[in-house]
Task: inverse folding
């Protein structure tokens, strides 16, 4: 984790203005600021504003875009459903509408009790437990039925002797985060989460934490496990070094800002006490 010795003065109004500027003419959000908006960026933008205690200036346009996007993108992958449903929750859309969007999630059940693919995953594709996290969180947030025992068995099958989670005996921060976050949402209290938290705690000084999304998985994963953020000043220093004059946050100390990494940065800064908690701002 690259660190900075001095913290720049964070201006939350500038961060909020960056997010607002990324709303496109069609009502969605895209970090490149040209239509069409995207489901992932719209979710990250609305989640970031929520962390700041702000409402989107063009909320009506965002709601209209979301309904149109749902018609075009659904039924879709659990991650797409998650992005659309969470954006709808942030905008206060009717739960019956969001439950209808999430209804096809059951078709993504795999033969081991989780969701999506888990075999022969390559490094270029999302972690093998990401789809399960997104499906389960969506179902829980919308009060839909979840077969908790099957999901827990599926996840625990990926826990390795070192305590972390990952396929083929190789633990990764991403897979461990998604496993811990899902198990915590399911209310599991066991030594499995404690061992995973111990593994995460040991990662803060190695090469697995080189980018902002990796630090996000580490910090939020530990919080989900009920552990404090280790060396919070150090973590906050890295995040603030990723802040750009435009108001957004980049993946590392060099690079362009994105809505995804701005959302992750705000979650870490809230967890480390740099920005205050806002009522009702907790979320995935």
Result:
């Amino acid at each position: 984790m690259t660190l900075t010795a001095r913290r720049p003065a964070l201006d939350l109004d500038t961060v909020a203005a960056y997010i607002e500027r990324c709303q496109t003419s069609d009502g969605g959000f895209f970090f490149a600021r040209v239509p069409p908006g995207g489901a992932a960026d719209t979710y990250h933008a609305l989640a970031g504003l929520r962390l700041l205690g702000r409402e989107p200036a063009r909320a009506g346009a965002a709601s209209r875009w979301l309904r149109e996007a749902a018609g075009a993108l659904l039924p879709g992958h659990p991650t797409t459903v998650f992005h659309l449903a969470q954006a709808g929750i942030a905008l206060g859309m009717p739960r019956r509408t969001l439950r209808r969007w999430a209804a096809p999630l059951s078709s993504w059940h795999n033969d081991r009790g989780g969701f999506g693919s888990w075999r022969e995953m390559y490094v270029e594709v999302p972690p093998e437990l990401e789809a399960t996290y997104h499906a389960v969180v969506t179902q829980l947030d919308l009060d839909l039925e979840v077969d908790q025992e099957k999901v827990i068995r599926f996840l625990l099958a990926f826990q390795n002797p070192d305590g972390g989670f990952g396929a083929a005996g190789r633990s990764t921060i991403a897979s461990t985060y998604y496993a811990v976050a899902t198990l915590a949402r399911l209310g599991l209290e066991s030594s499995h989460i404690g061992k995973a938290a111990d593994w995460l705690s040991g990662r803060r000084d190695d090469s697995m934490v080189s980018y902002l999304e990796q630090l996000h998985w580490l910090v939020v994963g530990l919080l989900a496990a009920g552990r404090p953020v280790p060396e919070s000043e150090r973590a906050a220093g890295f995040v603030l070094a990723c802040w750009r004059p435009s108001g957004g946050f980049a993946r590392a100390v060099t690079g362009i800002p994105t809505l995804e990494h701005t959302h992750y940065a705000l979650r870490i800064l809230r967890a480390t006490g740099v920005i205050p908690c806002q009522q009702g701002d907790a979320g995935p």
Observations:
- The CA atoms of residues 26 and 226 lie 40 Å apart.
- The two ends are 23 Å apart (CA to CA).
